[in-house]
Design brief:
single chain, 421 residues, TIM Barrel, 2 domains, 8-stranded parallel barrel, binds ligand LLP
């Protein structure tokens, strides 16, 4: 059930009218429902438990790394999947213990490796031979030993947007599954690293189960081969990727996903790690925005809103579709077809074209739905637009969990060169 519903004709987040948040915090602002995140976590972890899988959920912080959001999921038992030193610090600051953290990503630096080893993280997912050798050097120099997974590239097309597909032969991620046996043999010969796991992640926003089935089946074959070769593979990291409904798909059912996992790798006796991001955070967030102007051009009507591509990149970057909801429930009033655009000076700053909405006027409030994942985290300061506020709702309470950035703070970080004074 969505936590963004009309009550007495007014759109609410849980028990809070969004108009109240707009009045208190201003727009644009991201608003997250704690209950929606908890519900999604319950569905995901519950489906894995129902399928009798020995599973650990490590929330992919990249989807939404606000400390309060991480804390919501940590309190439910989630660990973390991080991809940078910054995300590592966030996970630790939100109260996730080092051993519950997995470090993914193709370009970990030696400094990031050292910080993660100091934090005693649970596992490194290694994506190349040079990275493996660097990690071995760093760990040995610290007299440490770290558990690693090699992230394999299974050459499976995830059938999602090509920019978020990661498991095809030519993608930059992972090590070709056909080379994996050699790489594990090499890893086993190196000091400081212990290859105990296999990792795979084929892409994001998957709505069809077949690519998961294909990838996991290939991984199962590999695990058997690795064991035959003498490697003690105890863990499998199956990545993230479960998609959500952006208004066009039936949302995939975590029970189907868990079924595919059980069918393909359930009999290997491995501890399983999952790294969901979007599924947990996406539907739990909206971007609250105000119409600045309605502009009637010759061929179309533009609704110009105060959110822009710098606040929410997904439509500009992936042509992603997001649904809009006005704060006032639509009655049977007139409808108009709009292009919904932001104030940034490029045509890419378009959230939707030819979208039918109840006729809008300047000053009206809207939300852009399903923006809890890959929204705030991908924002930039383009056009000197400050990063916007983030708000967490719980029942009838709300709290600002990131304040709106001040222009003065941005300017304070810049200085003239000394020859300019
Ligand atoms: N694990 C790894 C290694 C990943 O690369 C990702 C996402 C995840 C887990 C989490 O995937 P999820 O469960 O959220 O699908 N900015 C894009 C999505 C990029 C996903 C990158 N990797 C978007 O807005 O659609």
């Amino acid at each position: 059930m969505s936590q963004f519903t009309y009550q007495n004709g007014e759109l609410h987040a849980e028990g809070v009218p969004l108009s109240r948040i707009a009045a208190a915090v201003g727009t644009p602002a991201y608003v997250y429902s704690q209950t929606a995140m908890a519900d999604a976590y319950g569905r995901f972890a519950g489906a894995l438990a129902d399928a009798d899988l020995n599973a650990r959920v490590c929330y992919a912080l990249k989807a939404n790394s606000n400390l309060a959001v991480i804390r919501v999921l940590a309190a439910l038992g989630a660990g973390a999947d991080v991809v940078s030193g910054g995300e590592l610090e966030r996970a630790l600051a939100a109260g996730i213990a080092g051993p519950d953290i997995v470090f993914s990503g193709v370009g970990k630096t030696a400094d990031e490796m050292r910080a993660a080893i100091q934090a005693d993280i649970g596992q490194f997912n290694v994506e190349s031979v040079p990275e493996l050798e660097r990690l071995s050097d760093v760990a040995s120099a610290m007299s440490a030993g770290v558990d690693i997974a090699v992230r394999v590239n299974p050459d499976v097309d995830a059938d999602t947007h090509h920019k978020i597909s990661t498991g095809r032969h030519h993608d930059k991620f992972g090590i070709d599954i056909d080379r994996a046996l050699d790489v594990y043999a090499h890893a086993a010969s190196l000091p400081g690293v212990d290859p105990v796991a296999v990792a795979v992640h084929i892409g994001s926003q998957l709505t069809d189960m077949q690519p998961f089935r294909d990838a996991f089946a290939r991984v199962a074959v590999l695990v058997r081969e690795l064991r035959t070769a003498g490697h003690d593979i105890r863990k499998l990291d199956l990545g993230g990727g479960l998609g959500i409904d952006y208004g066009q798909h039936e949302p995939p059912d975590p029970a189907d996903y868990a079924g595919v996992v059980a069918e393909t790798v359930g009999d290997l006796g491995c501890e399983l790690v999952f790294e969901p991001g979007r599924y947990l955070a996406g539907p739990a967030g909206v971007l609250l925005t105000e119409v600045i102007y309605v502009k009637d051009a010759e061929t179309r009507a533009f609704a110009i809103i105060d959110a822009a591509m710098n606040d929410l990149m997904r439509p500009a970057l992936y042509d992603a579709r997001h649904e809009f909801m006005p704060l006032k429930e639509a009655s049977d009033g007139p409808q108009t077809t709009y292009d919904i655009v932001g104030p940034v000076c490029e045509t890419a700053d378009t959230f939707a074209t030819d979208r039918q909405l109840p006729t809008l006027a300047a000053g009206e409030l809207l939300v852009i739905r399903d923006t809890g994942a890959y929204g705030a985290v991908m924002a930039s300061g383009y056009n000197s637009r400050p990063l916007i506020a983030e708000v967490l709702v719980h029942g009838d309470q709300f709290a600002v969990v990131r304040s709106r950035q001040e222009i003065a703070t941005i300017l304070a970080q810049e200085t003239l060169a000394d020859w300019q004074s």
